Amino acid sequence: MSSVLLACADSGKSREMMQAAMAAQPEDKKILEFFMYTCPHCRAVEPTIASWQAKQSVLFQQGIYAFEQIPAVFSASWQSDSKIGEKEAAIFYTLRRMGFEHQMRLRVFAAIQDKSLDASDADSIARFLQKEGIPAAEFGTTFKSTEVKADVNRAESLTRQYGIYSVPAFILFNRAIILPQEYADNQAVEAALLGKVKEFYTKNAGKPAAF
């Protein structure tokens, strides 16, 4: 099951699986996005995420809500001999622990999707990052650390817990799902994100959202 197939999977099946998984979760104040570096749809929605967060920034800056991007990791039992997305997740968490994830995000997407950088080859990734000014030795050590391994295991657990079948996928407050592939364009995706967050805030704060 490739990441492209995952991104283009039947959104109806994806929604059904996630709805069932969410039903067992308590409502919370988190917004999660499951993604993969190899997924073109995930890359395409990145500007939408930035625009949406900027428009509702007060909610995140004040700690009212939290947004977390999670690299999807699909267990070996999911029609594969290995865990799909495991190496990508390790790259993501390594860069995050080194403090470079945000600045490198779009460059990693581009290198993997446009320049055929092999996300499963840690040495190739390290060489690419070194050219971008990221210390290769530190990357290699962090990549193999127990902390990153724990991060990846958590990502796999959350992918399974939420019944993620395709990416990108947004889980809002354990009560709403937004699958970008169901929308006509990124503008519609942003409108859906803005609307759902405003609706949730208004309902729980008991007053109209001031944004």
Written overview of the protein:
Belongs to the thioredoxin family. DsbA subfamily. Keywords: Disulfide bond, Periplasm, Redox-active center, Signal. It holds the Pfam family DSBA. It is found in: Periplasm. The chain has helices at residues 3-7, 11-22, 40-44, 46-55, 57-61, 86-98, 101-114, 122-131, 136-143, 146-161, 186-205, and strands at residues 30-35, 66-71, 169-172, 176-178. It is of the alpha+beta class and 211 residues long. It has one domain: 3-Layer(aba) Sandwich (Glutaredoxin). It has a four-stranded mixed β-sheet, sandwiched between helices. The protein is globular.
Short description:
With 211 residues, the protein is an alpha+beta fold. It has a single domain, classed as Glutaredoxin (3-Layer(aba) Sandwich).
